[in-house]
Amino acid sequence: LVAMSGGVDSAVAALLERERGVEVVAVTVKLWTDQRTDAAKSCCSPLAVLGARGVAHSLGIPHFTLDLESVFRERVVGAFIDGYRAGETPNPCVLCNGDVRIDAMIALADRLGCVYLATGHYARIADDGEGPLLAAAADPAKDQTYMLSGLRTSSLARLRFPLAGLTKAEVRERAERAGLPVARKPESQD
Questions:
Q1: The model's pTM
Q2: What are the pLDDT digits (tens) for 125-182?
Q3: Which of 4, 6, 67, 162 is the most exposed place for a label (fewest CB within 10 A)?
């Protein structure tokens, strides 16, 4: 199973997995619907879901959508507001990845009989002999381990990061060579 946001990183992650001979199925998580926000920059909006489905289909990959909007509002938005009111500086992406998105996609992977979940995050998995750990990606300018810092060890054991050894420029180059329509798509910002 490959997490597909509709951007270049997840598209190339899916492409790399397919090139490795893995049977790839894409999943996109819908977390937010709000007409007043800029859906073009959001990683998990209805517009992003449509874009991800289009990319998956252009690669000949089946696509699923997980609608987690209500749990996102409760566990992430609610926790963010409560933390902010308490004088904290919560990071909604850390909360979402650690408590909502990743585990929901792993649960779908289980239902589909998929062994692991690959994502387009720039991170690596290392093993210190006691289990999987997050490690920095090759591109320090794109390293996303902080956004994944809330993940449980059991979740880390199920993750793969095909972009771990690549720079953003190399990812865009791979996308262009493959003719992916998202090769020059701007990055999401939530």
A1: 0.90
A2: 999 999 999 999 999 999 999 999 999 999 999 999 999 999 999 999 999 999 998 9
A3: 67
User: Rounded CA gap, 113 and 75, in Å?
Assistant: 27
- Tell me how far apart the alpha carbons of residues 157 and 133 are, in angstroms, rounded to a whole number: 9
Q: Which residue from 98, 154, 88, 89 is spatially nearest to 121, judged by alpha carbons?
A: 98
Separation of alpha carbons 18 and 37, rounded Å: 34
CA distance 11 to 178: 10
- Radius of gyration, CA atoms only, the chain: 16
Q: Which amino acid is at 92?
A: P
Tell me the pairing of strands 2-3 and 26-30. Answer: parallel
At 26-59, the pLDDT tens digits run 999 998 877 666 555 566 777 888 889 999 999 9
